[in-house]
């Protein structure tokens, strides 16, 4: 089996291009190492499945940001569809947190990484794109330790006043409105998932935990979560502003980054330094 590059969701396996028999002319287009996401039997897939893959490609083409994995091209042949993208070898944020001292990150390290994630999400939302599966495993690092958001398999291009219907995401990161099977605001759903990401970075675990999915979902719908007494007031307020049960009361990505009514949050996200592997 080919070595996996990352869990990109969907049904595609992603491997370094050097491990896959794709045309040299395509793999050389970017001039940099690339990974390839392989969709076996693409041409024989049903219409709905093809539409999901095509939507993912459309989203990746629309995005161009230093904290988002770069799209590098596609190749469609009889046995498979190959989607090329930037190859990243710095590991996932999940691995970084798990292997860090005490299994969690310091506020300084978390702040610098989280700011990059927020900038990536701001780029998406400004282009009417919702991710819908933000999680530690879908955030990778390059060789310098800079963040790259990946996996747009559940993403969608929506109008800012449009509602989403598809129930998708990863259970521990899903907001209550999706669990209730309601139409929902995809942008607000991303903010909830961002809150879970930040919480996990700072605590080394999820804000909501249960014995099985039913118990987990009940905890999420209740909305209560513990906060470490060692966190600064600004970090606690930021988490509470994202992990708010009512979507309309949740912070937007603009408020998290720079809104004048959220100066304490902007202060927490200030600074240009970033973590880099030693």
UniProtKB/TrEMBL annotation:
SMART domains registered for this protein in UniProt:
S_TKc
| Key words, A-Z | ATP-binding, Kinase, Nucleotide-binding, Serine/threonine-protein kinase, Transferase
> What are the residue boundaries of the Protein kinase domain, all occurrences included?
1-262
Checking InterPro entries in the record gives: Kinase-like_dom_sf, Prot_kinase_dom, Ser/Thr_kinase_AS
Listed GO CC annotations: nucleus
PROSITE patterns, from UniProt? PROTEIN_KINASE_DOM, PROTEIN_KINASE_ST
**Tell me, what is one Gene Ontology molecular-function annotation carried by this entry?**
protein serine/threonine kinase activity
How this chain assembles, per its entry, is: Monomer.
Q: What is this protein called?
A: Protein kinase, putative
* Organism name: Neospora caninum (strain Liverpool)
